[in-house]
Amino acid sequence: MRAFRYARASDPADAATLVAGEPDAVYLGGGTNLVDLMKLGVLRPGLVVDVSRLPYDRIEHLPDGGVLIGGAARGGRVGRDDVLRRRYPALIRALLSGASAQIRGQATLAGNLLQRTRCPYFQNTTVPCNKRDPGSGCSAIPGAHRDLGVIGTSDHCVATHPSDLAVALAAYDAVVEVRRRDGTEVLVPIGDLYRLPGDTPWIETVLEPGDLITGVQLPPPPDGAVATYRKVRDRWSFAFATVSVAAVLTADEVRLALGGVAPKPWRLTATERLLAGTDPTDDEVRAATRAAFADARPLPDNAFKIELAVDLVAAVFRDLRPVGAGR
Amino acid sequence: MSAGSGLPRLEGRDKVTGAARYAYEYPIEDCLYVWPVGATVASGTVTEVDATAALADPEVVAVVDHTNAPRLRPAVTADELVLQSPTVAYRGQVVAAVVATTLEAAREGAEQLLVRYVEHPHKAVLDPDDPDLEQPETTNAGFPGTSVKGDVDAALAAADVAVDHIYTTPPEHNNPMETVAIIARWDGERLLVHDSNQGPWAAATGYGMLWGIPADQVDVVTEHVGGGFGSKVWPTAGAVVATVAARVTGRPCKLMLTRQQMYTMAPARTATRSRIRLGARRDGTLTAIDHDALQYSSVIHEFVEQTGSATRTMYASDNLRIRHRLARLNLPTPRVMRAPGKTPGMFALESAMDELAYALGMDPLALRLRNEPPTEPATGLPFGGRHLVDCLRAGADKFGWASRDPTPAVRRRGRWLFGTGLASAVYPVYQQGGTATARASPDGTFDVSVAAVDIGTGARTALWQAVADALGVPPSRVSVHIGRSAFGQSSLAGGSAGTASWGGAVRKACFELGRRLAEHGGAVPVDGLEVTADTAADQLPPDHARHSYGAHFCAVRVDADTGQVRVDRLLGVFAHGHALNARTTHSQLLGGMVMGLSIALCEQTIVDPRLGLFVNHDLAQYHIATNADIRGLEAHSLEHTDDDVTLVGGKGIGELGIVGSAAAVANAVFHATGVRVRDLPITVERVRAR
Predict the structure, then answer these.
(1) In Å, how far are A313, B435, B495, B542 from B538, measured between CA atoms?
(2) Which domain holds residue B638?
(3) Per-residue confidence (pLDDT) for residue B66, from 0 to 100
(4) How far apart, in whole angstroms, are the C-alpha atoms of residue A100 and residue B121?
């Protein structure tokens, strides 16, 4: 691996100063993804700025019923927060379904949002990958793409975003707090944080160099909401989602986000509109979910994900709606 | 306390506290780090290794490639003949090595190396219509490539009921916790290695052959090993690189393969494709068994997985045909992984038996009982103990099989579909000759040395008990020394034969020592008394078919929403004769069952045929069953004695537990869902493909 410089930011302004003028600087949170990628030669930063000790590790319960989770908060602690467990069950289920207890204990919230795809070709420097090596070509499309995306992808990249937590955050309409290099703060709805690959798959978010995710605002969950997260994976622990769904339902609102299918947490906005305020049958849920995949670009070995997502959304509706509530 | 009791492992505390020293951890002065570099083309010729940038780092001491590596001689497979030619037979084959004073510099040097190639066409797909398939004379372990009894085609045509299906298993990789590791030093023409292997003597022999020196000029130290499963049976390409680097630099060199490097620089299991045809009379009597097995080897070495070998011995049939065909692919030479041949072959055969039971409308247990052979079907040899029926019956009792409704896909509670399945297990009895030395000291203590290795099986503890038992003294007065090739020719930990072979040698040495002590009136001379025994002449005659047996019973639940499979219960009953240590035996059986469950549900190495690439070469992507995948797990050992077995009175148990367990899972999935998955692993999309 490339020799690199390490610096620990003493305060947020210091972090911004350290990375200024350093085009190959990266921020270090828990390191559970970054350090792996550095060892593999996928990322070769010249400067690693440790921001894990900046004062962004709080979990703050706000008077309006919302919650602010700091960007440096470790997953293990977030998962143990009683209020979050009670009020945001889909978030906690998603969090606890990811990685292992050891990794969650180390990984930070901001790092979770910015972790890189687990596409095997991205992680292997001996093969072409447009995300890692722009213009070299996508090995996954003609290759092993079973675990990769079916929607929001492009001819240049079919990578998925691997986070479970981000899928639940999307369903809770979370807003990401970003500190710019000049010290100003901007708020980015999580749905706007990620960019689709198009013909620039190496650009993954709207963040600018030096931007630092300082926290995530969770609005209060809708009144009377029921919520859950279900994940299909190849084993019962320690595997990324084949397909997952986060659902937040009320009598007149439906929020659904999928993991494992797209380059970002994928809100099913069309489905939500079709189902909101209705008391849908199983078939109506399926039809509405299928409608969200009208623009899907499935590949031979991952086309199964669409019907799996349909079945999963239908199952979650059954799970969340009390018996007898449906028609 | 004697043999058979469940003494805890001698080294257990050292291992959990970190005190146990593994090969890579020996503090050797002035040691260099070696980073092997794998080919990035699937087939071709290296035209240039440009080391300019790598050597610009003062920490990089040397770059070795085929132009400057010393010559090696053929040993076990061509994969270990590293850096001998510019020809690339598969992606990941070692084409260079960077040697540096730090690990990081070696790794970065490898990144900086520019290796240029001329690429050649390659082939990496196991294809039954491949025009270049070979029909090998023999398979691994010396079975005939083709064996025929009776007229299978006529019997199939005349059968009342027949099944004909194809079962596939993917390549699977050995993933020991400790990857291949070595520290190599040369002292003149002597090679000294701290090495992670499955047999110090086999390692010494292998390194000796490669370097053209006698095995006794290679000193191998292997005190602790973090698993092997078959990946460390012979010196691996990765480990040999360190001996080359040490030769080139004249300094000690250490190397530990990354998990990713293990996928091409250490052996794996081939993919297999078994077409099984079974013919039967209405009463379930088998009239034909046909097993047509396809597997692959590399283009540089012929290794033929013995995929059909279990079919030779399982069920009676007047008409029996077993054929092996071999594709030659641009992939690393596959070699052994726990229960080679038996694991994929018995998935196929035991799945087919379940399908035949359904075709007959017969209980799968009854079908197996109906076809119990009087002698071994392929060879006609009498059995040296046959306990399959005992295992099946005992397992059925413990599991509650009798109340089973065979109808598939009818047991649903909430989102879960429930089902049960069974499968048989078999593993041959192997034993190898070897030497051991026993020494009595005047203070009443005994020291026994044998070039054994404990790869995590509990062998050290079992041998300790065997020695105490043979000498008739308390274990506290006995020290067992293993893990050094200097202790003499000996078996490796393979073929489930390690402990039986080493145990036979140490027992013989102890008995001989006892006789010599008796000659001295029981008194130990002041200089002590030492005896070396050799069991080369004490081996099992080839007059019987000797196997251990087992039966797996599995209960699964399948998520009707998604197709996810969860194994609620896996129960195995095994007949392996005398256990040297009940605790570690139980642990080995459980470990085999877990590994079988793991290959049933999640293990697979994905090949990208376009790139000739093992795609998912790490433990995040190559899924092995986790704790969460294991619920009820039971292994029971049947009490029985077979006198005609190994010198220690028992049969091997290292591999028995994995054989057949994947079929038990697949059969239970069918019972739960009505979906027959004939291709491992049983992923959601396969369960959902109704």
Answers:
(1) 66, 11, 18, 12
(2) 140-172+269-429+543-688
(3) 98
(4) 42
What's the whole-number average pLDDT of chain B?
A: 96
Residue A236 located in a structural domain: yes
Beta carbons within 10 angstroms of residue A121's beta carbon: 31
Q: Check: CB of residue B332 under 8 Å from CB of residue B77.
A: no
Residues B531 and B561 in one domain: no
Segment A11-26 shows an average pLDDT of 96
pLDDT given for residue B644 in this prediction: 66
Tell me how far the alpha carbon of residue A39 is from its chain's centroid: 23
The reply to whether B602 touches chain A by the CB within 8 Å rule is: yes
Whether A258 maps to a domain, the answer reads yes
Amino acid at B132: D
Strands A254-259 and B60-65: unpaired
What H or E segment, with its residue span, contains residue B530? strand B529-534
Residue A116 — φ and ψ, nearest 5°? -95, 165
Tens of pLDDT along A75-119? 999 999 999 999 999 999 999 999 999 999 999 999 999 999 999
In a domain, B15, yes or no: no
Tens digits of residue pLDDT in B195-242: 999 999 999 999 999 999 999 999 999 999 999 999 999 999 999 999
- The CATH number for A26's domain is 3.30.43.10
**b/e sequence B3-30, b meaning 16+ C-beta within 10 Å:** bbebbebbbeeeeeeeeeebbbeeeeee
Average pLDDT over residues B157-184: 98
Encode pLDDT of B40-93 as tens digits. Answer: 999 999 999 999 999 999 999 999 999 999 999 998 889 999 999 999 999 999
Between A and B, how many residue pairs show a Cβ–Cβ distance under 8 A?
A: 93
What is the predicted pLDDT for the residue at A327? 40
Best interface-test mutation with A: which of B60, B115, B611, B688 has the largest number of A CBs within 10 A? B611
- CATH code, domain with B105: 3.30.365.10
Instruction: Tell me the shortest Cα–Cα distance from A234 to chain B, in angstroms.
Output: 6
* Amino acid in the structure at residue B623: H
Q: Are residues B396 and B421 in the same domain?
A: yes
Rounded to whole angstroms, what are the CA distances from B424 to A263, B660, B665?
45, 6, 12
Predicted confidence at residue B632, as pLDDT, reads 95
How many structural domains does chain B have?
Answer: 3
CA distance B268 to B338: 10
b/e per residue A296-307 (b: at least 16 CB within 10 A): bbbbeebebbbb
**Does residue B488 register a pLDDT over 50?**
yes
Pairing label, strands A47-50, A5-8? parallel
- Chain A residue numbers touching B689 (CB-CB < 8 A): 304
Would you say residue B465 lies in a domain? yes
Task: Give me the residue from A146, A238, A315 closest to B561, CB to CB.
Answer: A315
Q: A32: domain range?
A: 5-50
What percentage of chain B carries pLDDT values higher than 70?
99
pLDDT of residue A325: 47
Nearest neighbour of A234 by CB, restricted to B108, B611, B683: B683
Amino acid code (one letter) for B346:
M
Give the tokens for residue B301.
Answer: 């070495």
Nearest to B349 by CA among B598, B601, B666: B666
pTM of structure: 0.97
Q: Which of B520, B538, B556 is the last residue of a domain?
A: B538
Contact: A143, B610; criterion CB under 8 Å: yes
Q: Is residue B128 part of a domain?
A: no
Q: Which residues of B are catalytic?
A: 655
Phi, psi of B267 (to 5 degrees): -75, 155
Instruction: Please name the residues in contact with B584: beta carbons below 8 A apart, sequence gap of 6 or more.
Output: B6, B9, B457, B458, B461, B462
* pLDDT at residue A322, as a whole number: 61
Q: Given a cut of 60, is residue B376 above it in pLDDT?
A: yes
